[in-house]
Structure prediction request, 471 residues.
Amino acid sequence: MPGIVALWDAWCERQVRAGFEGLQGAEPLTREAFERYEAAFWRRGFELPGDLRALLEARGIVWVAPIESNDGETTPGLHLLSDVRRLDDHDRHLELAELNGVSAARHWLLFTTERGDLEPAWAFDHRFGAQGVGSYHQDLVCTDPVEEDEPLPLTSPNLETWLAAKLDDIETRRRGRSLDTRPQEHPSESFAEQQAAVLEMAEAKHQRGALSWKTLDADWRRLASGTRDEAVLRQILEGVRRDRQQGRPGVHFDAIARGASWPWDYPGPAQLAARLDEPSRRKVMAWALERAGGPQLSAAIETLRSGHPGSRELQREVSATGWVERTVDLSTSAGRGRVLARAAALALSADLSESNVERVLTLCANASEPGTWSLLDAWDHLEEVLTGRTQPGLERAAPPPESELVRELRAYVQAHPGPQRALAEALTTDWGPRLATAAPSDREPLTRILKTALKSPKLAEALSTLVARLP
Prediction:
């Protein structure tokens, strides 16, 4: 039995004898769940450490429940992140920290928390052989950043040493304590149930008129991704279209057009993509990667175009390409290529949450050459997909240029002083013979012009006669 597994088993036995039964345990992992967990490490540029691998294979995701007494004192807990979405969300947190100037953040992988959030959490640190474990809190990327050569606080050389120290600390804090209150429980709701509840609250807020488009509010994002009310979706699409034409305080469309990220409190392309099934989302991400300039990712792009996740081998290969160097560098083609490879690795995964799709699209926009492709292009494409004008990942063909006849008729109608009856007579007399010679491809645009010009019900017969002249 590996030493880390024996360490865990012996500690759990002592806790049961001390009266803390049911306050620690493990969630066994299926082979599929284990492989997804491992792939999340690859996406962060880490190999799964041997001692962690042994613990996951033998016992699964281990956890220790935090305990809060009546006097407010809390004995900390421990929970490896069984939901791969959490690993990816924390990965994005560190990526943003690096983009904001915290260079050391590129070396960390947050793999466990004490209370579920990021304060406090624990991280592997790549600077010291990718095996070292240290304490992490948000001050390290905010008010008190760690220097490039400075170890994380409470650093241990490997996971087993860290786990032994962590369990010993919890056991010491528990010693002599009685359970005056129930232990803090982990949320029992599934991720899907939580999302459904949040959407229901947003819809209720909209229905009672408490959600104004004039106010930036994350509830608009929730509605954009989840509502089944087509009228609400149209309101959002029209609202964004109007904001782009007229401008919107707090939403910098000019910066987005140059590759900036989308505001977190404004409905964006990721929310529209969340309305699609998974194969369609993959096709959209393949299109984004190609438009962003990732020709070296042809195998990944072709796999995504098929609508399927990538094989483990392809995921590992693309992840490795993204981490040849750990620095996020958007100033060189090689650096942008690494960022696109990281986006491709995430797109190839089986974990296509809304936040992951948003991250893929954002990385593509960040890594594009300025003016090449942006999240505004992603929004336009997804709007066309949702309104049935194109298919996911396919560019809508540009309409053919108008013929001279179409242009002349439009100009004639627009310049005619009216009234409509006089226009109908002029069209019948002067344009009837010319309409009969129109090309078949001109029938639809000519019909639209005629119907727009002759709207009166009294002129229906004259309109029908003119349309009948078309081939």
Observations:
- The two ends are 83 Å apart (CA to CA).
- The first strand starts at residue 24 and ends at 27.
- The chain has 20 helices and eight strands.
